[in-house]
Structure prediction request, 127 residues.
Amino acid sequence: QVHLVESGGGLVQAGDSLRVSCADSGRTFSVYAIGWFRQAPGKEREFVAAVSWNGGITDYADSVKGRFTISRDNAKNTVYLQMNSLQPEDTAVYYCAADPRPYRNYVRRDYNAYDYWGQGTHVTVSS
Prediction:
């Protein structure tokens, strides 16, 4: 069973950096691709970034490409999202999710493809 917990959110100013983490206490975390999604008030949940099970493949939404970096440490059962040059439009609840298909050499942007979700962590960027 996968149980994801996000942490690291907070209130920052425009231009600041923040790193959010997604950790799992289970023993199968390392076989799943992990995606980060975000949802701002009154908006649809949107794809942010994803990383394959071994870290070899990453994908980013155009809105964060060049500013955000996703990485994982399977020894620690943790995926990170390093967010630089944050802007007010990055304000949202950030969720991580696991794709239930193990050892896939691709990642997906469709949130319906992810079965296991964390509770989310709030990121607020003030101008």
Summary: The chain is about 0% helix and 45% strand. The longest strand covers residues 18-24. The two ends are 40 Å apart (CA to CA).
